[in-house]
Predict the 3D structure of the following.
Amino acid sequence: MTQLALVIDLNVCVGCQACVTSCKEWNTSGSAGPMGDQDPYGADPTGTFFNRVQTFEVGEFPNTETVHFPKSCLHCEDPPCVPVCPTGASYKRKEDGIVLVNYDKCIGCKYCSWACPYGARELDEQQQVMKKCTLCVDRIYDMTMAADDRKPSCVKACPTSARLFGDIHDPESAVSIAIRESGGYALMPEWGTHPANHYLPRRKTRIKIHDDELERADNPLKVDRQLPRPAMNEPTLDDVTTW
Amino acid sequence: MPGDNAPSPSVQEVKNTTCYMCACRCGIRVHLRDGVVRYIDGNPDHPLNKGVICAKGSSGIMKQYSPARLLKPLKRKAGAERGVGDFEEIEWDEAFATLAERLGKIRATDPKKFALFTGRDQMQALTGMFARQFGTPNYAAHGGFCSVNMAAGMIYTIGGSFWEFGGPDLDRAKLFVMIGTAEDHHSNPLKIALSKFKRDGGRFISINPVRTGYSAIADEWVPIRPGTDGALLLAIIHEIIATGLYDRDFLVKYSNAGQLINVKDSSDEFGFFVRTEVPTEEACYEPQDKLWWDRNTNHAVVTHTAGADPYLRGEFKLSDGTLVKPAFQLLQERVKDYTPEWASQITGIPVAVIRQLAHEMGVTARDQKIELPIAWTDSWGNEHDTVTGNPVAFHAMRGLAAHSNGFQTIRALAILMSLLGTIDRPGGFRHKAPFPRPIPPCARTPNDPRAVQPNHPLDGMVLGWPSDPDDLFVNDDGSPVRLDKAFSWEYPLSVHGLMHNAITNAWRGDPYRIDMLLIFMANMSWNSTMNTAEVRQMLNDKDTEGQNAGEFKIPFLVVCDAFHSEMTAFADLILPDTTYLERHDVMSMLDRPISEFDGPVDSVRIPVVPVSGDCKPFQEVLIELGTRLKLPAFVTKEGNRKYRDYPDFIINYETEPGSGIGFLAGWRGKGGEKFLRGEPNPNQWEMYQKNNCVFHYELPKSYQYMRNWNKGYLEWSQRNRITRYAEPILIHIYSEVLQRFRSAAQGKGLTRKPPEHLKKRIDTYFDPLPFYYDSLEAQVTDKHKYPLAAVTQRPMAMYHSWDSQNAWLRQIHTHNYLFVNTRTALQQGIADGDWIWIESQWGKVRCMARHSEAVEPGTVWTWNAIGKAAGAWNLTPDANESQKGFLLNHLISEELPSAGGRVSNSDPITGQAAWYDVRVRISKVGAGETATEPNTLPQFAPMQPYPGMKTRSSVLAYVGKLFK
Amino acid sequence: MHPAFSVIFLTTLIGAAQGLFLALFTAQSYAAFKLLPQPDAHAFYGQGSLIALVLLVAGLGASFFHLGHPERAWRSAAMWRTSWLSREVIVLPGFMGVVFLYGLAHWLNWHPVLMILPGELPVDPTAILGVAGTVLAFALFVCTGMIYACLKFLAEWHSPLTVINYILLGGASGFSLAAAFAAVTAPELVSFLSGWAVIITLLGWVGRAASLYRNARLKPKSTLQTAIGIKHPKIAQKAQGFMGGSFNTREFFHGQSVEMLRGVKWFFLIAVFPLPLVFLLSGMHGGAGLLAAAFTVQYAGLLAERWFFFAQANHPQNLYYRCIS
Ligand SMILES: Nc1nc2c(c(=O)[nH]1)N[C@H]1C(S)=C(S)[C@@H](COP(=O)(O)OP(=O)(O)OC[C@H]3O[C@@H](n4cnc5c(=O)[nH]c(N)nc54)[C@H](O)[C@@H]3O)O[C@H]1N2
Ligand SMILES: Nc1nc2c(c(=O)[nH]1)N[C@H]1C(S)=C(S)[C@@H](COP(=O)(O)OP(=O)(O)OC[C@H]3O[C@@H](n4cnc5c(=O)[nH]c(N)nc54)[C@H](O)[C@@H]3O)O[C@H]1N2
Ligand code: SF4
Ligand code: SF4
Ligand code: SF4
Ligand code: SF4
Ligand code: SF4
Ligand SMILES: [Mo]
């Protein structure tokens, strides 16, 4: 069975927010839109977004890691948000594991958002229905688009390609390989929600320099070391003494 | 969601153009639904961004339909003060008539009295040409307040630079050291490259007082005290030389390291290369007439003599008794005392880390050599079977540039990169066409005030690259000709001008008053000026006595902007520009190119939506004005209109009649069969349109590397008139150009001499070898009183001031905090989120503090240009940007006290604005103070929307067709 | 969590209504077994049911304010197989219907004997409706309680105590109300009802104290470390990704000070338990005013209790929304 998901590589995410606005841009005019904004030009502007990029500081100066952390709906394999929904507006698709909200059925009771430990759902203030990442379901199957475009908007936008998209149930997919080989992990595993989205941790590259590498025969200092010989006609002791 | 698998609502049209949500110039695809923008994504076929797009680019829709857009030409109401924003709508006819009349008068009397300053302009080729045609020397773009140190420091050393001129080859590098970069102009390409580099196992080190953005994903973060990189780099050079980790072979062949310098103190030639007679071809720029001391024969020989191998170290006596030393020897002497221990005290970086940095660089460069099977021929005719490289790449930007010691620091960096043998080689630094240029590049400004004549174009370039004191653009008494004092003895190598001083100078009448200031795309009453509050007063200041009593000190101020910026409020006349989706534009090779390492690239914008309101592209304004003023380039011999409009101009304009060189390099020639040079092609725009709006000429592999000394490339470049000279461009480890100025200051030689009060300054800073000094501001600051350095960083999701009107982006950065190291804050009793005062010697700002573990304890920082004036950008007056956001610029002074009066707060060599030198202290605001007014200070009277603008809505639900 | 007034009123009003109904039917059952005198059925059961019904309708009305699309509320019955909310949505009107019929039967004095149970117990429609109503009242308590108790990430709620307390607190307020009501319509039941009210209030006190005790000792299962999957004792959020607030910052944070929270807690601890107890005990023998005071104070206390119930619940999503910059 297919389970589509995003795998986010924290090792390369620079926190540029491209995934945030490209998501908004695609979806607000798409079938999941509009994504309303309130006070867009006033104090404390606020609006519906499906994806947010946050920043955390880990450790203390000078051993600080700054971690940029994008988060959208994780399309849990055991999504606690679905069974609680009284209307059936929230559902998980069998065919690809995407968790969606049917806006026409949603009564805006917000109960599903209470049942999501990840804070991934947002009630659209204008439409008064619950919204969340759709995994760009209106892109990925749209056969009128070129194959390369049939990806989530955020994935296409991401300048560092920190966002991988694919089927985590297919062991040969790029996302499965990344999870396997780069230590992919899930958020809040303690709740047994089995998020489909995974995160790849920071990995460090270090260089080890051995002492003898600084002391080698090809050291150019040796070439220039012989200082120039004085010219033959320059004064020497021979000019002043005979012993 | 209705219907899962339902196809998306039909997207009716996709049009390609070039993004301009920032200066990176990515290719974009604009998806339109019923003529309205529905979606903008990256163009996968564009060489720059390869399909990706950034946060700003993805928010273009909110810029296009922003309520902050100016939609009508506006005239300040008679009697209204400047800054109040009391305007009335006018028609373009009136605007043009006013401008043409005033400009005509100025041009007929004293063209200097017209100053044109442009900000983040991408059409400097056109704006600069307009100024030159007009005849005024008073033109500059943003370079001087941006990163001219980066351009000059490296171009005067290796003939190319970072910034938009070259970059790190992360495809092949193994070690990447990024210094003082938060975002840069090459936004998307750098991100693409960086992640690829990391995934390929490269090691990434970031040297920066702050760890955010790119630095966040560095394998190692080296926090450094601002303004001290010079010390670090010199110590690394010290260590690299001391351990013999330099690439001797590279230095010998490709730099002036082995060339002999006269070191006889008393000689008039002291500090100059010793020259000999060599047969030169005609029109040679830098003859190969210097000497080596050959190891094989133990004699002086002409540089690059076949079979010779110079000593890099030692002291020699020429047959005429002159004492000489190779440049490298002088460098070694220079860095002798710049030990890691010394640098550690200054930079705050542990000694072991400094050594480790040097060793990692040196060992990686030496042991991980790259060899590509690419045959090429060097300038001396030697054939090479391979191109080799040392895979250590650097990148640096304003963290180095925006300091008054930046030029010498950047020289040190360029020299370090050269010592490691990484210039235009795989895995190191790579040039982008039209770079490398000869050192210095050949363009010169006039050097005589008589170049400015009524009704005549300026006799020379408006900006150029001085190579000695005689190239300075000064009056006979040595005083500056230009308003901004660029190319004067105060800032001799100010190759991009000093726009940041233009307003203060014009206001004070030092060196003289002007009549009209035209500001294009710069927010000089806010984020691109220092000393913001006072500059705003200068803009509104009137003479109190004399014949002009009651008149503004800057009599006529015209602003061309697309938005309701702080600057527009001060205008007498506002020209509403189009957005990037509404106009034709060219990203020309005559300007900052978007070239790739593998060859020249230029690109265009083609309108994808109709012009809004009464907006007009500034390009059209210039062409119209040029035509009305009958500037020679815009009219026929008979004085008639030559170009219908801007697209027509771009197609048909040639730098000289028949030169075949125009703004665009692609699809030239009658049928579009030529490139770089060729006759105008009437269908050039269509051809760009068909080709993703971009022209990319890929050089043959053998021309892609070692271009400073690549015979094939240089000749190709000469044939295509990219350069005039095809000689090798040797790296200037030792800068004779600087020595020429120093010598003049010491009273030697035949060139012009600096005025008395500047002699010491020139003598000190024009050191031909890099050295470290405390920034100018630090020199006049009591560091105990102002213990902290304050800097800004570019947020990736905002472009300078212009995205606060963007409904999506402003939700990400609605206001800003001052980030303070947690311990530093706690020492002052400042809790996370507290309101604090941040004070410099020059001003004081009230703002909020945020604790951080990702900033060096002696540094505080904030995001650049998030704070706004109340009501500006058509935000409500209580918007966070003005009430909780703040602008650091209030704390920075555009001038510093100096022995000779005042001097610009700029690098003494290049005039680069020293944004990041400011020293501050912080304190918690007194109890009760915030309770009454919980906002930032200073505050200004709220701006009102102007006539003709759309009203802002209180809710937004964009669906690609209409605002609900 | 951000306490929504719609939900506070919904749960307290229907809780009281359920309690009241249970009180009515308890009285009727006792009376059937001749353990209590027969009150004036028309007034006591009929009007009593009407009061319960009014409370239920008011509660239901309040709940609509919680919905983004009240016009689609009917849809919420769909998922009764999985959703406690859906179940509540089904049970509540069912219960209302039964209360209505029960009251109606009493009002119309419709007491045809349908059968005789062993022990000469005649069964009339009100008895059947009463049993049905009792079952539904408990079912409704369970549904309401389970809406909260089933959310395992909300540790403060995820406990049988949540359901128990909904039953006890609803019961207590309902019996208090019944006692006060009886003081006017069926004085002979007052001491019985207030006696029960005292007992249930005491039990409620124990139950609520137990949950406070439990909640004070909860250790959150989720931490910043598990939230972002990084092992380090010192992690601090610097930016949540937006600055002007969002649904996630409005819905899940009460936004009140610790002092306010503590104040509300003490207020409800006094207003729901000891004060009503004092009033109930002093009014046990017919003081209509005292009993009315007991109910009023207790109900007011329950509003605070419910507010606190929400405010105290700490949602793990809050780990992601703690700092702007
Ligand atoms: N998103 C976005 N992109 C932009 C812009 C924008 O506004 N927004 N602006 C464009 C423009 S005009 C420019 S000039 C470029 C500038 O691009 P950058 O040079 O990357 O810009 P800054 O944000 O000034 O970055 C300066 C960095 O240097 C660090 N720094 C400050 N002082 C020192 C120092 O003394 N030593 C060291 N080692 N580091 C130091 C700061 O912490 C910061 O990280 O970006 C361009 N790109
Ligand atoms: N404290 C501090 N100050 C700094 C810096 C810093 O790092 N710290 N950085 C400096 C640097 S490097 C730079 S380059 C400057 C940038 O300074 P500016 O060039 O002044 O900055 P912008 O905010 O980009 O303002 C340009 C103006 O262009 C307008 N604009 C946008 N699009 C268009 C258009 O299509 N047409 C027209 N006509 N106008 C348009 C905007 O509305 C805005 O008013 O800031 C400098 N100021
Ligand atoms: S677009 Fe990519 S790099 Fe940028 S914030 Fe999102 S995931 Fe990170
Ligand atoms: S992340 Fe939240 S909303 Fe998404 S599936 Fe999991 S529980 Fe549901
Ligand atoms: S808000 Fe909508 S989707 Fe969520 S539980 Fe209620 S009805 Fe279901
Ligand atoms: S997959 Fe689509 S909906 Fe989900 S975060 Fe990415 S762009 Fe937004
Ligand atoms: S980097 Fe600049 S040019 Fe490229 S997409 Fe972003 S805003 Fe546009
Ligand atoms: Mo800049």
